[in-house]
Amino acid sequence: MPPELTANPKFNSLLDGQMTTATSMEQNYYASKDSNYADLVAQLPALRSTLVQLKDAVTTAQFTHSEQPKELFKTCLKAINAGIRTIESATKLQAAQQYGYISDLLSVDAAPETSVEDSEADSTSESGLATVTNLCVTKLNVVLGGEPTIVETGSRLDRLRNEMEDKFRRIQAIAREKATADMAFARRTLNTLFNDVNIYSISPVFLFDIARLGPQRAKLGGLRYGVGVGLRFEIASVAHCTVGYAWNLKPGPGEGAGTVFLALGVRELFY
Q1: Nearest 10 degrees: CA dihedral of 183, 189, 193, 198?
Q2: Exposed, middle or buried: residue 251 (CB in 10 Å: 0-12, 13-18, 19+)?
Q3: pLDDT digits over 95-143, tens only?
Q4: In angstroms, what CA-CA distances link 266 with 2, 185, 204?
Q5: Among 153, 155, 158, 197, which one is least packed by beta carbons within 10 Å?
């Protein structure tokens, strides 16, 4: 491969991104086929019910605490609604497509510290359960002084989330291992093509040959030595053809002074 391509940081970044995307798709597929995945999906109705109850509790608190900033309620309810929509979308799909929505709900990372001012701007995690807990229980309910209904529903939501995330981590770990193994050959192949393979090459060849011919009788048979030179033409570092001439250094009766030689060969690059 030309160095202008293999040494181009932008090209290498794009190529690595494509391989990462392919690995992620493989991981999602294996995760959706995991035996524990059905248990995770079975908890979605209970999760939706808990979010609806939390929404009702927050809506009621909004009327009883009208003196509190409306923005706190708005960001909380927005996160709850996003979570409910994500669950409803997940229940309408199956396998790998469904897995993407469940992944949005169950972040295995710590919930980001989202302020009221930038919570609307951060849309990447707005449907996650950790965001609901952060905005509704950790932030809003502290300002409200601890509404019992929000506390109780929020605790139930956290129990469900923790249980589902534990299953999610186990599923992800197994799926990631399988996907990485699947893509290992593709990565090795690309590495060979970009770093080890030449489109073509021509190189000189030196030959030294020794053989014992028998049975030895007078000047017939015995040891023979030969030296030669030639050229090797190689295509894609896989197939090669070598042609040249070798001289017989110790010719016997009736033997020629040398001969033309030709050799063809292939080799496996991708192991």
Answers
A1: 170
A2: middle
A3: 667 888 888 888 654 333 333 334 333 334 566 899 999 999 889 988 8
A4: 23, 20, 18
A5: 155
Q: Which tokens is 17 given?
A: 């991104």
Give me the residues paired with residue 210 across strands.
225
Burial of 153 (0-12, 13-18, 19+ CB in 10 A): buried
Question: Rounded CA gap, 225 and 227, in Å?
Answer: 7
